[in-house]
Amino acid sequence: MKHRKISFNRKNLFKKGWLVSLADYTYLIILAVIAAFPLIWIILSSLKSKGELIGNPTAFWPQQFTLDYYRTVLGQLNFGHNVLNSLVVAGCTMVLAITISALGAYGILRFFPRFGKAITRVLISTYMFPPILLSIPYTILMGKLGLTNSRIGLIIMYLSFSVPYAVWLLIGFFKTVPLGIEEAACIDGANKLQVFVKVVLPNVAPGVVAVAIYTFINAWNEFLYALLILNSRELMTVSVALNSLEGQEVLDWGVMMTASAIVVIPAVVFFMLIQKKIAGGLTEGSVK
Q1: Theoretical Cys-Cys bridge with 142: which of 57, 79, 147, 197, CB 3.0 to 4.6 Å?
Q2: Spatial distance between the Cα atoms of 81 and 86, rounded to a whole number of angstroms
Q3: pLDDT tens, 164-209?
Q4: What is the CATH classification number for the domain harbouring 257?
Q5: Cβ(167)–Cβ(105) under 8 Å?
Q6: Which helix (H) or strand (E) holds 150?
Q7: Do 61 and 44 meet the contact criterion of CB atoms below 8 Å apart?
Q8: Cα–Cα separations (whole angstroms), residue 4 to 9, 10, 14, 15, 44
Q9: Pair (34, 117) in one structural domain
């Protein structure tokens, strides 16, 4: 009798666990569909014909797929050039931010251990101020330096925001590297730079990748400072170029949907490809 009772309880527990898992997955699927619906709507709307989008804008599935809007956006509006501008600005910001912040974080941790906490608090305190609060001083400074309407000026402004946060994050990653392996490399004849490049960086590679992606996505999506600094149509990034479409006398929703899809899809695909590295890097960077 006891054996039957234990078996019955196990079956009940199995059924209960299966039902809980089913409910959890159903809930997550519903949330995923809700989150992805705006992006799917934008993509499908960009593939509709002009008459269909105007005549029946609430229809979800296109009656006929067409790339006319993409030809208009990439051909007539030259939106591809704006995408290239964003790639250049975001890419340069990412490379420079990782280089500066990696060297800075390692130097703070290894050469100034007593002042490390104080320095990191000062760095992270810069995020207490909203970006719009510094827009006027930054614009005046870039004007005096002659860096308005230039990619270099925009990259410098992005670095001033991304480097402090990147340094703060990378200090946590560098703390996970045992000091013993660095001392062993020095005993083998490696200098400080060789230890940093060949020993330390490979051990914190997931963290560096996570910080790099964070920096790139922030620079890709940034709008305020790109609007203030860049005045030329040829230098506009995708966020500013997308906003300029709203200023037209007649707003073409098909063009707007297509331009939005071109802006959002690369970032989403890129994030999906490296999401495991980002999660792994953030996990390894946590210090107890």
Answers
A1: 147
A2: 9
A3: 888 888 888 888 888 888 888 888 888 888 888 888 888 888 888 8
A4: 1.10.3720.10
A5: yes
A6: none
A7: yes
A8: 9, 10, 15, 17, 57
A9: no
Residues 101 and 89: their CA atoms lie apart, in Å, by 18
Q: What percent of the chain has pLDDT over 70?
A: 85
Is residue 93 over pLDDT 80?
Answer: yes
Domain assignment present for residue 53? The answer is: no
pLDDT tens digit sequence for 47-80: 888 777 777 777 778 888 888 888 888 877 788 8
- Which two tokens mark 184? 């062993």
**For residues 125-141, average pLDDT:** 81
Give the chain's length: 288
pLDDT of residue 15: 53
Tokens of 195: 């230890």
Q: What are phi and psi of 235, to 5 degrees?
A: -105, 0
Residues with Cβ within 8 Å of residue 52, at least 6 apart in sequence: 59, 62, 63, 64
Parent domain of 6: 2-46
Within 13 A of 240's CA, how many CA atoms are on the CB side?
A: 23
Do residues 65 and 220 lie in contact, with contact meaning Cβ atoms separated by under 8 Å? Answer: no
